[in-house]
Amino acid sequence: xxxxxxxxxxxxxxxxxxxxxxxxxxxxxxxxxxxxxxxxxxxxxxxxxxxxxxxxxxxxxxxxxxxxxxxxxxxxxxxxxxxxxxxxxxxxxxxxxxxxxxxxxxxxxxxxxxxxxxxxxxxxxxxxxxxxxxxxxxxxxxxxxxxxxxxxxxxxxxxxxxxxxxxxxxxxxxxxxxxxxxxxxxxxxxxxxxxxxxxxxxxxxxxxxxxxxxxxxxxxxxxxxxxxxxxxxxxxxxxxxxxxxxxxxxxxxxxxxxxxxxxxxxxxxxxxxxxxxxxxxxxxxxxxxxxxxxxxxxxxxxxxxxxxxxxxxxxxxxxxxxxxxxxxxxxxxxxxxxxxxxxxxxxxxxxxxxxxxxxxxxxxxxxxxxxxxxxxxxxxxxx
Length: 383
Description:
Layout: H1 2-17, H2 21-30, H3 38-47, H4 58-61, H5 84-90, E1 147-150, E2 155-160, E3 163-167, E4 179-183, E5 186-189, H6 195-202, H7 227-240, H8 251-258, H9 265-268, E6 314-320, E7 340-343, E8 360-362, E9 371-372, E10 376-378
Parallel strand pairs: 6-9
Antiparallel strand pairs: 1-2, 2-5, 3-4, 5-10, 6-7, 7-8
Helix pairs in contact: 2-3
């Protein structure tokens, strides 16, 4: 290892010396990354991204906290974009599809992952419209509506803007490693699906918490539903609301929205500390039946305008229980076998379970009185 490190220290100055002044400037901007990633930094410098709003490696790979974890160079990159995540970075500056192949993703099949140019055949520039300046920008697509409603069912959804975030936590093995995920814009239910909404679509109410003891049951979240039950509900709902394209959120979408919380659980969540069924009940040794969910939307929303992402009921996600890094690919289809993810914690859980990064999974056919759902849908269907 010492010999390798010495060789790198010799190689870097030689590589820098062989480049023009521009490459030396790129090495300076790349900073400590240039010690090891010589070729990548050179390719990045040749691409000219430093002059186009990408002045350093950290823009894509994060601040490199603990990048080299130990003396054996146990690498733990903060961000390692792959596949569609790379294409989403390109879309920030370039057209939404390749002008040559019309491909909309996986730019690295033709272009280098760092330099993003094809040395053999650089991508052609699209000619500007007649009479237009070459520097003219293409018009931005119309912004999607900020919300979506189905009035007769009382369904309200809020637009969650596109972005990227560091998903996961090193606190729990199933939630690690922390990695960066890009999320496209999507609509998310302002509240969990209620008992009234479920019954209006399915003709029956499976919830345990209903009857004379729960006068507000119709406004409470539906529960005691399996993931498979949710798929049947979505199928019926999509037949009723033509073209709506309702679905469950992916766990990445769920966590992305949940991280917009204020951190004040008492103000935003129904959980063990405040959801006892009777005054004076509670404590560490109470059974789950001593607690109950509450009507949706009665606590404060998070910064995105979404209610009850934490507490009330655990929420089924579309994603299979698979090790990280997260990948929203064909293996997560509704026909794939395996446990499915639930997020958010429930009314009988303590505060430590109400964490944006905590993952829980169950068999897709299992029904519990603390499991419910929240709707999601793609933005493209609203345009």
